[in-house]
């Protein structure tokens, strides 16, 4: 889960009523004009504030993140501090310096995330509490044998989601790609992690939950901004409604909780004996983390495949070969069972997904500076100030032409070499340890990354095996930079595609 808000603030302002807007504007101007008076101290990185109080360089960065960062890098080197949405953030652009961020105990992820959890999900987290540590221990249930179980259930749930389509006529069905991916990912992930509603109107309940979730997710950037939630129109009520849907009382009507949900629920009940709403808030945070990035990631993987039929043909071939070699010829119904090793062997499939993530991930890895400290650098050490933020900005690396040839192009086989996974990428003549970071790094690295990749792979395998797929809209689409700095970007508009059962 992530992060902080600069652009979100702007979006929040858009969502306000006039009195709210005026009050918020006044408050911001007052508090943050004070912050803008900061000057660079000896030994600190170059300080770039811009002329806008509070916002600083936020608008320029949001408009063209890669271009603007490159310009600043040329002018100031690999390390500099920007004023962005009221925060002073020191960016580290040299990938060989990343390990410094991970190892330094004066840089805290927990301190950084605490406010976000409170604002976005209403989670009151004491960062030194045992609850926090115990919840963290649960992440092991997203690996090993527990992951095998999740994977098996996920395949079954996916097949259930797509079953109705299989028995349709063999005519083309035209639909919006993002809407399609949203439903498929939300329904499958929810069923796999939280289980299935016991009621007979299951389909209706999951659709309602998905619709509420989408309303909440739409407000997400507003929620994590500095604007008080009370000033954000109906955002608070949407958040509350969703939390209520995920309390212990409501979850009792869902069958088949995964191991991780069982363990989290057990821990949460121990700490919040009489506070079911607090438990619902934690579940909302986990649910959000499990779908909010997977949906757009799935969208981009599908979108690029639809736009690149030559890549789709190679993937189909790779999957067909595996199914044939494991004795799973395509029959009339769903019958695919693949182990993790078998999924892993599909190198072109994985490369396609990684390439889609490379192009669409605009996550930053952010830490709170707990004490003044010295940042070692080849061009001289820099002092960092207590209370500031430190950020690694992977999109610049993901779009670096020295690391990835023609970085703006989608090349489905970029992460394959001699028929195997390619893991060697170079910069300045040296092999890079970190070259692709859509899942973060160090203390905050995404614990759901294995499941996310499995889900997207399984979804693509089902679609490519059982359906013909074609893009209908030929319009070019771009990344919508709304969620800039905190995750996989959504497209700026939806596109139509069509699918039909293979004859
Ligand atoms: C393509 C899909 C996904 C992407 C790109 C992604 C990305 C990330 C990133 C970048 C972070 C780190 C946040 C930070 O540093 O501020 C993160 C954290 C997290 N992710 Fe994911 N994620 C994905 C899917 C999932 C799934 C499927 C799950 C759960 C099953 C999940 C669970 C989490 C959790 C619980 C955290 C917080 C970890 C902590 O508290 O330290 N994610 N994710």
UniProtKB/TrEMBL annotation:
Transmembrane region(s): 16-34, 284-306
Major place of residence: endoplasmic reticulum
EC number in record: 1.14.14.29
UniProt keyword annotations, A-Z: Cholesterol metabolism, Endoplasmic reticulum, Heme, Iron, Lipid metabolism, Membrane, Metal-binding, Microsome, Monooxygenase, Oxidoreductase, Steroid metabolism, Sterol metabolism, Transmembrane, Transmembrane helix
Cross-referenced InterPro entries: CYP450_sterol_14alpha_dmase, Cyt_P450, Cyt_P450_CYP7A1-type, Cyt_P450_E_grp-IV, Cyt_P450_sf
Pathway listed: Lipid metabolism; bile acid biosynthesis
GO MF annotations, alphabetized: 25-hydroxycholesterol 7-alpha-hydroxylase activity; heme binding; iron ion binding; oxysterol 7-alpha-hydroxylase activity
Binding residues annotated for heme, in chain numbering: 446
GO biological process: bile acid biosynthetic process; cholesterol homeostasis; cholesterol metabolic process
Annotated localization: Endoplasmic reticulum membrane; Microsome membrane
Cellular component terms (Gene Ontology): endoplasmic reticulum membrane
Gene3D superfamilies: Cytochrome P450
Needed co-factor(s): heme
Family: Belongs to the cytochrome P450 family.
Record-given protein name: 25/26-hydroxycholesterol 7alpha-hydroxylase
Organism per entry: Hipposideros armiger
